[in-house]
Write a structure and sequence with these properties.
about 20% strand, 14 strands, 6-stranded parallel β-sheet, 11 helices, alpha/beta
């Protein structure tokens, strides 16, 4: 039997702790150490009987892990990942891959130069629901994709905004939450080539948006709309509809609709609508339910990361791919600021 893969974690916040739990429960890898200067991280390391390091460089130099999960604040993603590349240690980088497309391009160059594999933690791509939706669209069950609807509507509690940076530009639902949905839509439907957007901060009056409306054009020709707000009680968001995270009360509602010439699919409840016989608006619609297998996407992501380190699998979402998602989010912000139609390709070119 091969030895367990030794995986370390940099950052012991909420998502870092979740990664640590998943590693501890795995039969295929073990926790090699934690890098975080906080006293709470020291206590967590003691509880797992592993060393705690003041920073990631000390961890890389002393623990010499097989892989590092970067679960630090966004500003540290780039320097940590660059150090992993130089040390020859594969990394799983939490989303967003870096703060900007320009910094993501720097990381892409480092990955190409060193050949060190890196995976970006858009973990929903590992969810069987998202994988099944992608297979349904790509397999032609909907015919030619014509329209996409995305909803991310829920209410963040008032105490969420006691943290100052969440009231400032860059701390709102576009970069923190919408980026997940944009990545899902890219993964399922293909590249987004044009963006129009409006944003509003009318509800709270903070410097950051609380509501946004997006219009998207996909490379396939399909059009999409996405409505975002973190200021309204509603069940239409991935967090509440999917049941992926047990901390959110699950709602039996969709948050995406994919419409094509032969059928339509609502996600995550996975209802497939089509005509059983001659199509037309007077004809009765038939409804079928797709039932993908259920498993924790973070567990699958860790398995995939270990397989990637071993060279058995290629990254499901590479740094370059994740940069494409980040470019769409930057295009949304720029479109809202200027009132113009913005191409993610323009964002890439300007950052080069």
């Amino acid at each position: 039997m091969s030895a367990k893969m030794r995986i370390a974690v940099a950052g012991a916040g909420l998502i870092g702790r979740r990664h640590i739990e998943v590693i501890a429960a795995s039969k295929h890898c073990e926790l090699a150490g934690i890098a975080d200067p906080s006293p709470a991280a020291t206590d967590l390391a003691l509880a797992h009987n592993v060393p705690c390091y003041p920073d990631h460089r000390a961890l890389l130099g002393q623990a010499k892990p097989d892989g590092l999960i970067i679960a630090s604040p966004n500003t540290l993603h780039l320097p940590m990942a660059l150090d992993c590349a130089e040390a020859g240690v594969p990394a799983l980088i939490e989303k967003p891959v870096t703060e900007t497309v320009a910094t993501a391009q720097r990381l892409c160059a480092a990955v190409r130069r060193t050949g060190v594999p890196m995976l970006v933690g858009h973990h929903r791509r590992h969810n069987p629901i998202i994988k099944s939706a992608r297979e349904t669209v790509a397999g032609g069950k909907l015919g030619q994709l014509t329209a996409v609807v995305g909803l991310w509507l829920l209410k963040k509690p008032d105490d969420y905004f006691k943290v100052a940076w969440r009231r400032e530009a860059g701390g709102g639902p576009l970069l923190l939450n919408l980026i997940h949905d944009i990545d899902n839509l890219r993964f399922i439907c293909g590249e987004i080539v044009e963006v129009q957007a409006l944003t509003s901060n009318k509800v709270r009056g903070f410097a950051v948006e609380d509501t946004a409306a997006l219009l998207l054009r996909f490379a396939s020709g399909a059009l999409g709309t996405v409505t975002v707000s973190d200021a309204t009680p509603a069940p239409w968001s991935w967090e509440l509809a999917s049941g992926e995270n047990r901390d959110y009360p699950k709602q039996d509602q969709p948050c995406y609709i994919f419409a094509g010439t032969a059928g339509s699919l609502s996600v995550p409840n996975m209802e497939l609508w089509s005509y059983a016989q001659q199509p037309g608006w007077y004809a009765p619609l038939s409804r079928a339910t797709i039932a993908p297998p259920g498993f924790d996407p973070l567990v699958e992501q860790l398995r995939h990361f270990c397989a990637m380190i071993a060279g058995r699998e290629q990254p499901l979402i590479s740094v370059e791919d994740a940069m494409g998602t980040l470019a769409v989010v930057e295009a949304v912000s720029e479109a809202a600021r200027t009132g113009q139609t913005i191409s993610p390709g323009q964002i890439m070119e300007q950052a080069a």
